[in-house]
Design goal:
heterodimer; A: mainly alpha; 5 helices; 69% helix; elongated; B: mainly alpha; Rna Polymerase Sigma Factor, Chain: A; Arc Repressor Mutant, subunit A; 2 domains; 71% helix; 0% strand
Chain lengths: 78, 199
């Protein structure tokens, strides 16, 4: 029997919060449910795009952080 | 999600024993996700840089003084500190985030453009800047869940507890955030296949 999934289950699936059993059931359902499959594709495409828009801090900021840690014992006020 | 041969908790253990190189690995491993989270809130490169430094001062103080909770996950913990500092900044200033121009953003952009032509680099930069703007346009509740899950890597259960809603509401908000983003992208005719998803 093919279980019916909610759209919210797809979100959990994309973010790997489903169990192995749920994954198998969802992947089976995707074979027979074209609309579900289409929505998963759309959502996945958008999620993939989010990973590509990360920004990076300047090297100067990272150097300051590492320097603070290195000289912590001299700087510590707590 | 990327897997590392040395886990965050192993790096923290090394760091606690005085290995500053382990701390450098930890900082570099997560700097972009944390910085992106802060930037999305404050929308200002220089302010985000300051807040990132403040965040890590707290991290260093906590770990070096032996107050770090081993049971928690490192990245969600750090990102939560960063998130709270960014929110605190606006509370103190008693104003809402203002939209600033993205002058100079290319300098800090981490996207890999080296093998592209100048023209295609420009298209990619414009497209990514546009997508960032589209995220900023999402309703607060949707943007909040999207940032917490995608950049802060909190689970939906953790988000539900942090925002005092059911897990289904958190999932629904995330789903609508993604659907709305796609609609906005379609409306603007963003060539996401070409510009976002190919290296």
């Amino acid at each position: 029997m093919i279980k019916t999934f909610t759209r919210n289950d797809l979100i959990r699936y994309i973010y790997q919060e489903t169990t192995k059993e749920e994954n198998t059931e969802i992947e089976n359902a995707l074979i027979f449910d074209e609309a579900l499959c289409d929505e998963l594709g759309d959502l996945q495409l958008t999620v993939n795009g989010l990973g590509r828009i990360e920004r990076s801090p300047s090297k100067g900021s990272i150097d300051k952080i590492l320097s603070y840690s290195k000289y912590y014992n001299m700087n510590a006020v707590n | 999600m990327r897997k590392y041969s040395v886990s965050d908790s192993q790096l923290i253990s090394l760091y606690k024993n005085g290995n500053e190189g382990a701390f450098a690995d930890l900082v570099n491993r997560h700097k972009n996700k944390i910085f992106t989270t802060v930037y999305m809130i404050v929308k200002d490169q220089y302010l985000a840089e300051d807040l990132l430094q403040e965040t890590y001062i707290k991290v260093v103080n906590t770990i070096k003084s032996g107050r770090y909770n081993e049971e928690g996950k490192f990245l969600p913990w750090v990102t939560r500190i960063a998130h709270n500092l960014a929110i605190d900044h606006f509370r103190k200033a008693k104003r809402y985030p203002t939209i600033v121009m993205e002058d100079g953003s290319n300098v800090f952009n981490t996207l890999e453009f080296s093998e592209d032509s100048i023209e295609s680099q420009k298209i990619k930069e414009d497209t990514h800047a546009l997508l960032r703007d589209l995220i900023k346009e999402l309703p607060d509740s949707q943007r909040e869940v999207l940032m917490m899950r995608h950049y802060m890597q909190m689970s939906f259960q953790e988000i539900a507890e942090a925002t005092d809603v059911s897990i289904n509401t958190a999932l629904g908000r995330m789903r609508y955030a993604l659907i709305n983003l796609r609609k906005k992208m379609d409306k603007l005719n963003i060539a996401y296949d070409k510009n976002l998803y190919q290296k």
